[in-house]
Amino acid sequence: MFVLLSIFMTLPVILLAGSETPNAMAFAESAAIACGVGILGMGLTYRKPRELKPRYMFVLTVSSWFIIALLSSLPFYLSDLKISAADAFFEGTSGITTTGATVLSDLDTMDKDLLIWRSILQWIGGIGIIGMFVAVLPFLRVGGMRLFATESSEWTDKALPRMKTLSRGLLFVYVAFSIIAVVTYRFSGMTLFDAFNHGLTSIATGGFSTSDMSMGKFSDLILMEATFFMIIGSLPFFLFVREMHGQHGVLFRDQQVRLFLTILFVVPLLLTLYRWMVSPVPFHPVHNYAATLFNVTSVVTTTGYASEDYSAWGPLTFVLFFFLMFVGGCSGSTAGGMKIFRFQLSLIILREQLMRLLHPRAVLTRKYNGRSVSDEIISSMIAYTFIFLLCLLLITVALAAMQLDFVTALSGALTALTNVGPGLGDIIGPAGNFGPLPDAAKWVLSAGMLMGRLEILSVVIMLAPAFWRT
């Protein structure tokens, strides 16, 4: 993985061949370091394969994402930006976890090689997240992900051919949608440079842009196209592969897909009506609906784009966007958040408890997408929800201890854990960035982004002393 990352580090310079690349040396040094770490690792671990146990997979997953985030920050740290190590690590972590929070400003005049690297980072992170969902998290039984286990989630010799076939299908779908996004943006009025960058970050639901205005500098048509691609990136990619192999209709029969699309249909419609009723300025239905749909989709899918400062739309909008940060996309997508299926499982448990109050002797079965939901999955999901809220509390308290106001501390902690991107308020809201925060806060938020991307429990279990006992 580190050697592959070093190859990607050369792409900004290669893609800008013939143009000015003021940070070429920074990318060359970063690629050499990443490649050296990869080769050293292969040399030290070249031996007879051992049995792959869950403990090894936890260590591999957590350590690889942390080291990749560290290596990804090198081009920022070694560049002409002259930023601190905390800023560089925050930007690299935000990129590889597809969070989209940034400490950088003046993006419109920033060196193009750095802007391309930010987009490539999010694109790499997007496909990495999908692969982790398909192969790793169900195997580790983290946060209820066992519900989506397939034969391709089992690390056995028998399952490896299926895993390879699924991996190739996922990569093909991901690359195809990325190319379609780039071409669509180009023909809708973006420059090739902007189309390339936004095409990569839309499908990855990352949210990095080439302008301080984010997507606000583009037309309503482009906003609607971006909305479509953000939705695509937030749907289960393995269902696209099944559709491609002739299992037509499986995408829209999926329970989480149906609820996810319902939320994106109902919430923007109601919010547009609210804005129409309270707006003190002339209301333009088409433009306002496009902007509302775009920004709601950006938050729900944890992409992090913004076309305007939605925190200024009124108190109801402010509160609603805060709670939308929790939602996230579908499992098996590039989106972050708590994921739709966990809310659906919570409703199933609630219904079951209510039925038991009415009929104590009733024999009830739990079904989700036609599959039985075991007690193990329910307990895992409840544990995830508890540890998520506990981490949200601890990070908020830590940020508040650094003299950050309540809105900044709470929304910053939430946006990090859910990988949304912008927070709320004047500092880290859609009109600001994370640059003014103290370095200590950036380290804490970087850790929060990694924990959120790894479903939190994968990291927390490694903090338990029992984990390291032989």
UniProtKB/TrEMBL annotation:
Its membrane topology: Multi-pass membrane protein
TM region positions: 27-46, 58-78, 120-140, 169-187, 221-239, 259-277, 318-341, 381-402, 443-468
Highest taxon, organism lineage: Bacteria
Pfam families per record: TrkH
Main subcellular localisation: membrane
Statement: the UniProt record of this protein carries the keyword Transport: yes
Keywords in alphabetical order: Cell inner membrane, Cell membrane, Ion transport, Membrane, Potassium, Potassium transport, Transmembrane, Transmembrane helix, Transport
Entry's localization field: Cell inner membrane; Cell membrane
Keyword Membrane set for record: yes
Family in the record: Belongs to the TrkH potassium transport family.
Record's function text: Low-affinity potassium transport system. Interacts with Trk system potassium uptake protein TrkA.
Protein name per the record: Trk system potassium uptake protein
